[in-house]
Amino acid sequence: MPADDSLSLDQISHLFPQLENIQLIGTKGPQQIFSATLKSNFAPVILRLVPTEEADVFGWTPEFVIRSRAIVEQSHQGLLRVYEVGQAGPFTFIISAHSPYPRLADMEKIPQIKPQAALTIVRNLAEGLLTLHRKGIFHGGITPKQITIRPDGGDALLLPINIYPAQPPVDMGDFASPEWVTGAEPAFTPGMDIYALGLTLYILLTRTTPLEAQFAMPSSLIRCSDEVDAVVSRAINPSPRERYRDMGEFITDLDKAIARPAGGISVAPATPSVQPAMVLNGPRKGQSNVYYYLIPALIVGIVLTYTCILYKKDVAKMRSDYNEQVQKANEAKADVVRKANKAAKEARHHAPAVPAVPAPAASVPQPPIPAPQPAAPEKSAPHVPAEPGEINWSVQPGVKVRQSSTRNMLAAYGPEKAVDGNTSSELSDVSISATGVVEGKNAWFGIDFGAETNRPVEKIVIYTPANLTLLGTMEEFKVMLYDNEKNVLAEKTFTTTPSEKSTNISTWKLNSAVKARALRIESTSPARPLALTEVEVFGPEEKAEPETAPAPEEVE
């Protein structure tokens, strides 16, 4: 540290005559953090100092300072006020308001917040960020340490700038969006801020992270509506393409969820649960008014119970319809591949039988008639292996996909995602299937080909996401092939390493084809979840049994 970095409090006070009661409260690398009071309005503030000669290394570049000065002009009830950004003596500094509320990182100090309050808090933060987005300013570094919440859940404030811009993204924990962690998006985008706010909402609702909750929908952990599930699931979708792209659209869906936080009719203003006793002609001594309330309470209880039953039935039907739609979509994709494979098979079968064109009288050779080529699959079709005679068994009709997590999973992490045929390495295209962690049990992901359709398997290709803090690292996992009696026919253990790409690829080529009923991918540790982007199971095309001609009758 340079000598100028050890200035006394008197020297610091001389550099900032607009402040009083300056006290050092902490350091973060070259940054020093002071509490103080503004002389102009007696507001409590935080003063952050970085030696100017180290500012670029810390991330406080001239561009960062210019962007921070633009934030000074902004003011919103969901954002902590930034009073001043500039240089004083040997330091670059930021003066911002000091919130007395606990931070989101200190969740144990915050009591349980009702769904409607959590939605309102996040909406207020989103509206504050929207004022910045309209100016082309994106936060890009929202963390639990930069969000303060009033203990009663009535208010929350966000520091509108990332004061640690040079820190690795992994230090942001689960709040770093996948495209920022992998480097697929080198610049800040609205989607990164929306992702962080979506996680904030999930934590406020459930008091846990998606990974700790095994990627369960909020409605499976607390009482909340499908609108809440929908807005959370879309906001934290790992694919930027499937996530909200605009903060205004996010706010619109938050408003819908606020109107129906627990399902049923729109929320009405709260009324006191106990009304003053209604006395006719004055109560007699010792007389109780309990009957005035007992009958209405019973009626209300019956209505609420009946409403809850209908609501649960509606939710079950909606989820059943969704699963049916996913199954139909997967079968349609598989049908495209099946038709392409069938066309290729017929082309190879008929090619030798094409009669040759007789040569003309002249001895000029004629070119052979080309064999018919199979129709090219549609662009949206699953990946088809280039090797002739190989079939991707994981996308064939009748295949069933399962995983160890039995809870209502977030839509972005369903088991069908790993067999949708998408092998793109672009993060904007990748879909992910993730499992949770169950104490004492290894997480697993399986593909069942069917008892009557055991498939010859000779190559397995597994695509796993890079080191995403939200999903886990897939550090070690086993791949096993089973027969109908669940005997292990073959197995192999893989160890993946983090990559700068959005996916890592692990390939297992067997020495010879193994006819298997099912494939299972299993974590080697109960503490590790699974996170897959695609699983492909290749094998040789099964040839039809040749028809044998009937034996000739013996002549007596």
TrEMBL record:
- Annotated Protein kinase domain ranges read 19-278
PROSITE patterns per the UniProt record, alphabetical: PROTEIN_KINASE_DOM (PS50011)
Region of interest: Disordered:
342-396
Question: Which keywords annotate this record?
Answer: ATP-binding, Kinase, Membrane, Nucleotide-binding, Receptor, Transferase, Transmembrane, Transmembrane helix
Report if keyword Coiled coil is assigned.
Answer: no
Biased composition range(s): Low complexity: 352-364
Q: Cross-referenced PANTHER family, in alphabetical order? A: MITOGEN-ACTIVATED PROTEIN KINASE KINASE KINASE 20-RELATED, SERINE_THREONINE-PROTEIN KINASE NEKL-3
Protein's UniProt name: Protein kinase domain-containing protein
From which organism does this entry originate? Akkermansia biwaensis
> What lineage is this protein's organism placed in?
Bacteria, Pseudomonadati, Verrucomicrobiota, Verrucomicrobiia, Verrucomicrobiales
